[in-house]
Structures are given as C-alpha cells and as structure tokens.
Amino acid sequence: MPTYISLINWTDQGIRTFGESLNRAEVAKQAAQRLGGTLTETYWTVGAYDIVAVSEFPDDESGTAFLLQLGALGNVRTTTLRAFDSDEMARVLDKLG
C-alpha cells in the first residue's frame, strides 16, 4: 500500500483544544480504517511541525479523502508527502534503465 508522511500543524482552534489531541488521533485512526487505510504512527513533535503522522492507504484517492476529512474538522492543516520504501524505489529506478 502507498505510504504517506503528513507534517501537521495545529490551527488556532486545534491549539486551543490541544488537550483533546489524543482523542482526535484515535478518531483519525478510525477514519483511516473506514477508508481502507491505516494510521501507522503518530508523533507529537517540537519544531516547525506539531505532529508527524505516517499512514498507508490503498490508493491516492483514499489518502486524499482522509486528509480532506481530517482538515474539515478544523483542528489541523497538513502537508503530506508520498513516501517510497526501498522496494518501491527500486521499481521506479528500473523504469529508467
């Protein structure tokens, strides 16, 4: 399944209710599962981003639907990267030569 790394920042609404962050992470896990995906890791971080999450979805459409659902709640804004493991990267490189 494709892997996605999301760099997440709280919105003004999200930071005001940061105490609900663990519950919101659980709700996000459930939302991912409903779309056929898995929220595999969630890290609360210090620095440019408040949270980093790793997820897997069967396709880009499902992953995008998840991010839209998450953003619509108003607590976070996301920047998401499609990640490639070594096997996937090998297949990419095979296409070049």
Low-pLDDT sequence parts: none
- Characterize the main sheet: 4 strands, antiparallel
Our count of helices gives: 4
Q: What sort of overall outline do the alpha carbons produce when their principal axes are compared?
A: elongated
| Tally of separate domains | 1
InterPro entries: GYD/TTHA1554
Protein name: GYD domain-containing protein
Pfam families: GYD
What does this protein look like?
- This protein is of the alpha+beta class and 97 residues long.
- It is built from 4 helices and 4 strands; from the N terminus they run E-H-H-E-E-H-E-H.
- The protein has one domain: 2-Layer Sandwich (Alpha-Beta Plaits).
- A 4-stranded antiparallel beta sheet has the order 2-3-1-4.
- The longest helix is centred in the N-terminal third of the chain and has 14 residues.
- Helices cover 42% and strands 30% of the residues.
- The protein starts with a strand and ends with a helix.
